[in-house]
Amino acid sequence: MSESIKTALITGGSKGIGYGIAEVLIQEGIYVAITSRSQSSADEAAASLNKIREGYALGIESDVRNLQSQEKAVQTVLDKWGRLDYFIANAGVGHFAPIQELSAELWQETIDINLTGVFFSAKASIPALTESKGYFINIASLAGTNFFVNGTAYNASKFGLVGFSQAMMLDVRNAGIKVTTIMPGSVATEFADHKPSDKDAWKIQPEDIGQIVSDLIKLPARTLPSKIEVRPSMPPK
């Protein structure tokens, strides 16, 4: 594939923020692979994305909690398009309960997906990103700097992710890889079983995060916004 072609891999890209990012990148002419733990969900989302530009989207079944699964996803992109330029670590889960009620299983799932899953994503993609002098973008949360009631598991995972991402940035920048952490506030998605509606018009929209990703990858190689906090501009009073 031509050196002028760029490719991206987005975890949890079948809906929400990940899908919004995929939409924007495809509109920019970037080939995009999206992952989901369900192949049917990944294929359905890819089919919808291919209506924007035919053949630009690929659905992959993958679980961020498994390193081999992430390595296979990266290899699938390399086999398909010959390179990986951008990895967007977006897959996440939210379980919210008082510490007295939070189960060990829900704690573990939150840490495994939101934090360990990004570690596995990084381990799987760094060789390919080193080759392309690429970009690793973490979708964290304002919950990575602002704690709240019922947030023990989610806060812990996102505080950890912000620290991980910033340290990773220092580790890999001399290899030519950029790392940015995007920390959104309220986004209109299905996260935590929410049902988006017209009442969410004040919230950040998934494609808004996609626009931020698009802007980041267009910056000169010498410039790196390492951490970006994003808030709704006019939340309800």
UniProtKB/TrEMBL annotation:
It comes from the Bacteria. InterPro entries: NAD(P)-bd_dom_sf, Sc_DH/Rdtase_CS, SDR, SDR_fam. Pfam families: adh_short. One of its GO terms (biological process) is monocarboxylic acid metabolic process. Belongs to the short-chain dehydrogenases/reductases (SDR) family. This is SDR family oxidoreductase.
